[in-house]
Amino acid sequence: MAQCRLGILPYSFAHPFAAAVRSAGELQPGSIALRTGSSIELSLELQQGNLDGALLSPIEYAKRYSRYQLLPDVGIVSEGESRLVLLEFRERSHTIRKIGFNPGSGTEVVLAHLVLKEKHGIAPQFIPMPAKSPGGGVDAMLLVGDAAQNAAQQTNTIDLVDEWSDITGYPFVHALWVTREIEDSILQALGVIFKRIDDPSINDDGGKFPTSPRFTLDRSAIDGLSEFYRMAFYHGILEDIPDLNFLHFDDTSHQS
Fold first, then answer.
1. Which of 86, 92, 203, 237 is deepest in the core (most CB within 10 A)?
2. Do 98 and 25 fall into the same domain?
3. 40 has which bridge partners?
4. Are residues 189 and 226 in the same domain?
C-alpha cells in the first residue's frame, strides 16, 4: 500500500484525530505521514498533491469544492457553550467596530460575521493580527481553539458557537475531512483510522471542554453546515453554495 499523507489542524480539539492516525500508523510503520498546519496551509498542500487528505475548515473546502471530496461521517462538530470560538471584548468597550483575528481563521471570521449581523445587526471590520487580548486599535479579538480555551474563564467574551446554535438550532462544523482523487487502498486505510476515533483512550479530553466536540458528521451537523453555507452566500461572503461531495469507501470510481 502506498504511504498515506495526511494533514491535521494544530488545535487541541483536533488531537483525537492525530492520535488515531498515529495509533493506526504504529500498526504499519511508515504507512502514514502526518503533517500539522493551518487550514490554509493544508489546503495548499492538498492542491499541490503533497497530501492525500486533510482536516480542513468548511471555508477552505468551499473555495475549491469541485475539486475535493468529503469523507462521510467524520468531522469536528460542537454546539452550545463549547468555548472553541470566542469573541473577547476590550474591557469597558461599548462599541464593536474592529475585530482582530488570526489570518488562519477564515471560517471563524465568517461565523463571527454571520452571528453579529444576524443577531446584533452590526458588521465590524475584521483586521488580521496575532492572537492576543483586545488592544492595538481593535475592540475585540476572535479567539479559536487553544487561544479560546485560555480565555474561557474571562467574563468579557461571547461564545460564537453557542450564539450560532441559538440562531439556527444547529451545531457548528469546525472541520471536515477532505480528499482529492486517491487510490482505494488509501481510502480503506482512512476507514480503519477513523474507526479508532471512538476509542475513549483517544478522544477523552479530560474535561477540558465544557461541551466536548464530537467527531461524527451526523444529519444535524450536515444540516448545520448547509445552513452555514446558505447564510454565507446570502450575505455575499461566498459566490455560490458549495455541493457536499461525499464519497463512499466502496466507491472505486475515484481511483487514479
1. 86
2. no
3. none
4. yes
